Backbone:
């Protein structure tokens, strides 16, 4: 274990550290699947020997993944290799790992995403008025980051950096508002299912998956949802029927300009439909007690309480990883 030479102090960043972060940013800005190995070696060559540098590189990778969700698989792969390559740090007799800081960042983004969506949806207060365009711009930004976060979490699970329990709790959270569902949550749910469905849909999770898809079927016929979202739900149902094999050719990596252009078109479409309704305040995720080998019931956040079902324990090299709203992955 490598002892950090410099103690982290909140708000204090040295000139040397700023130079490191600029160097890392320059490398990550050039990252593509084609030059992955070359640039990975360049990042490793940067002296990541303290918590400040480690936290900085994680934040930069995370921001790139959230703003460019098409490339989440590549960024998750980059995280997987960095977690294996970088030494653990020790500060104040506490073990600090790349994986722990990365997954704490996932937790922060979950909470931030909920705050931003609530902020965008709440009524105007006092003299502060928001135009429809300003409100939709906030929604669009929160939506983009949430979708990026969900997709990155799914890709990290596929790399066994997150446990199966976390995936089920994310699914239940996104399915929580069945009668008056939030379209952003549904879109995130469909994205997560398409990312991890093949891995998570196994016999020991049959009851959970059955409950999820009963809810998805109900929502796919909810005429209060846009036709785009209903079609997305039906596509997810069809994807499972087809054993999680895409019928259509999966899109390859896009240029960042194409990603941004599609987002602007999607935003214009949502403005055209109008946003005259507000969504209910979401209940916070409850990810159960740490260390339990039992997954909470599939209806725990959706009404009804069937018996708990044990899930297979798939080793990720760190079996103490769990998820909770306030202490997500803090037990690593």
Residues:
């Amino acid at each position: 274990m490598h002892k950090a030479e410099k103690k982290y102090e909140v708000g204090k960043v040295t000139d040397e550290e700023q130079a490191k972060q600029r160097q890392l940013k320059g490398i990550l800005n050039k990252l593509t699947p084609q030059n992955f190995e070359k640039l990975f070696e360049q990042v490793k060559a940067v002296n990541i020997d303290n918590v400040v540098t480690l936290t900085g590189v994680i934040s930069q990778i995370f921001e790139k993944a959230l703003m460019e969700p098409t490339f989440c698989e590549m960024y998750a792969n980059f995280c997987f290799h960095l977690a294996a390559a970088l030494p653990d740090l020790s500060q104040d007799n506490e073990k600090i790992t790349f994986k722990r800081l990365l997954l704490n960042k996932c937790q922060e983004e979950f909470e931030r995403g909920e705050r931003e969506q609530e902020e965008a949806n709440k009524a105007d207060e006092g003299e502060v008025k928001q135009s429809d365009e300003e409100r939709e711009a906030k929604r669009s930004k929160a939506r983009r980051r949430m979708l990026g976060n969900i997709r990155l979490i799914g890709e990290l699970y596929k790399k066994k950096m997150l446990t199966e329990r976390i995936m089920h709790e994310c699914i239940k959270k996104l399915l929580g508002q069945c009668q008056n569902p939030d379209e952003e949550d549904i879109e995130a749910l469909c994205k997560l299912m398409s990312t991890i469905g093949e891995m998570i849909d196994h016999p020991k999770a049959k009851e959970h998956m059955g409950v999820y898809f009963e809810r998805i079927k109900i929502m796919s016929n909810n005429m209060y949802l846009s036709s785009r979202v209903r079609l997305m739900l039906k596509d997810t149902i069809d994807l499972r029927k087809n054993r999680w094999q895409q019928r259509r050719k999966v899109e390859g990596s896009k240029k960042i300009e194409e990603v941004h252009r599609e987002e602007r078109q999607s935003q214009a479409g949502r403005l055209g439909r109008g946003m005259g309704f507000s969504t209910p305040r979401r209940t916070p995720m409850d990810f159960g007690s740490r260390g339990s080998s039992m997954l909470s019931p599939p209806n725990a956040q959706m009404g009804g309480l069937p018996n708990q079902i044990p899930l297979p324990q798939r080793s990720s090299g760190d079996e103490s990883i769990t998820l909770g709203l306030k202490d997500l992955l803090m037990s690593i």
